[in-house]
Each structure stands twice: as C-alpha cells, then as structure tokens.
C-alpha cells in the first residue's frame, strides 16, 4: 500500500468566517453540503451518503472561526482532513483552505470531489 500524501486546496469565499465556520463544524451545517446526514456525539461525527453505512470522523482540534481538523476513524493516525479559514492581508478576503490526504494517483480525483462539494457549499452560502 502506497503512503498517502497531503494536498491543499484554496477557495475564496464571500461570507464572514463565523458563518463559514458553522458550515464546517456543525452537523446542521455539514449536512447542508458535505453529506446527506450528519450526527455528532462526543466529538465524533457520523457522515452518511445515500442512506449508506455512516462513516465516522473524530474532531482532533479546532479553533472557533479559524479551523477544524477531523480524522476518519478508518484512516491512518497521521491522516486527517482540515478546513481552515484565512483572511488575505491586503483585500481582507476570506479563503477556505482544505487539507486532505490521498494516494499520489488519486489526488486529482479527490480534488475534483472536493470542488464538487465546495460548489454545493458556495450555493448554500449564496456565493
């Protein structure tokens, strides 16, 4: 099995960090764009798609309105996916930074999947 590597995606967003953070860190927000059904209990989120078996991820760390890092329970200990909210210095624009892990040959496909998901998020945000 080849080792997964981290990759980063960045998307400019037209909304406040606090509104964006709600969509990235709460079951109701994530259910709007990331998965069909989202539940949370004791910092473990359950994500379901198309009525399938839930995939679980624990929250590793978070800072309100700044970032949240999840780790799939089935993934390696060093792997995670992260949503980070940054502001550009000059224009003060909000940037959504997504960090995730994938095998080298799968990064392009995984990036497309994230783009599809983020497009849904932007639609919900009115972007």
UniProtKB/TrEMBL annotation:
Residues 1-126 form the START-like domain. SUPFAM superfamilies: Bet v1-like. Pfam families: START_2 (PF19569). It comes from the Bacteria. InterPro entries: START-like_dom_sf (IPR023393), START_2 (IPR045736). This is ATPase.
